[in-house]
Amino acid sequence: MNDKESIEQRIKTVLDSQATSEDTRNALRRARAKALDAHETQPTVAWKPLAFASVFLVLGGLLVFSVNREADFPTAEIEDLAVINSEDELEFFEELEFYIWIDEEQKV
Known about the structure:
Layout: H1 2-41, H2 47-72, H3 78-85, H4 87-94, H5 96-107
């Protein structure tokens, strides 16, 4: 009878360990499936619209600054064009520093 109880005890131990490992496997399968389902249902960040918006913002900024730079350059007035075209007055402006120096020397 002792052998019968010993065999029963061994069978029970083996079956219990298999049941425990089956429970563990099932629990791991359920946890994995739950994790995969949770990953699929999480909202994804809409990065494409943000990227396009950033590109258009940068391009718009470049366009605005390039347009403003053109307006910052001084434009020649009609009077300046008359001075540039005249040879006599051009000599005066070429020697203007000399005339200013003479004027300062006379004041001293």
